[in-house]
Amino acid sequence: MKLIAKIDDQDYAVQVELISGQENLYLIKIDDREYRVDAHMMLSEIVTTIIDGKSYDIDIEQQNISDPLDGRLGVRVRGRVVYLEMLEERRQKMKDASMARFSESGLVRICSPMPGKVLRNLVSPGDLVTEGQGLAVVEAMKMENELKSPKNAQVKDVFFKPGDSVEGGALLLTIEV
Predict the structure, then answer these.
(1) Contact 90, 140 (CB under 8 A)
(2) Which of 32, 39, 79, 123 lies most in the core, judged by the most C-beta atoms within 10 Å?
(3) What are phi and psi of 42, to 5 degrees?
(4) Could you tell me the sign of the dihedral formed by the alpha carbons of 128, 113, 69, 139, in that order?
(5) Distance CA 16, CA 3 (A)
(6) Please, how many CA atoms are within 13 Å of residue 55, restricted to the half-sphere of its CB?
């Protein structure tokens, strides 16, 4: 599994692989460094790990469990709390696409960040939408992803219908800011 971790505006590529034949043993690559991690989830929801022969109890708290594109976490290790954001590479692309910043006014193109199938259209031409309001739901890799309006705007055109298959970068709709 490929992840993007962001700590203090610094991005790190994280790859997690279960070591074949080992139930709780993982190979974790962070940028150019590799770690063999033996990890077990305890009943208390604390993860107990052995990393490079040292034992760590890790308490992970997701900051907003209702939004699948919000990867903010609080991670406590040995009394120190680190706040970071971690998302699967695919979800990070979805977030980047839905949170892109646009100019103050003009026509804004809302495109599919990856190939998928349009499940639902949440707006129609002429609708007024607010920043963060859902515009469409695209299924990619069996996960539903809601594309949201980056600004308060008016929907101009919708170029798809539910059930359509779309390529990454396909124009789905335009809004006018």
Answers:
(1) yes
(2) 123
(3) -90, 165
(4) positive
(5) 8
(6) 3
- Joined together, the tokens standing for residue 152 give 């308060």
Answer whether residue 10 shows pLDDT above 60: yes
Q: Mean pLDDT, to the nearest integer, of 52-57?
A: 91
Tell me how far CA of residue 6 lies from CA of 81, 91, 94, 170, in angstroms.
Answer: 15, 13, 16, 28
Architecture per CATH, 2-88: 2-Layer Sandwich (3.30)
Tell me the whole-structure pTM to 2 decimals.
0.52
CATH level 3 topology of 100-176 = OB fold (Dihydrolipoamide Acetyltransferase, E2P) (2.40.50)
Structure tokens at 129: 């939408």
Tell me how far apart the alpha carbons of residues 117 and 95 are, in angstroms, rounded to a whole number: 17
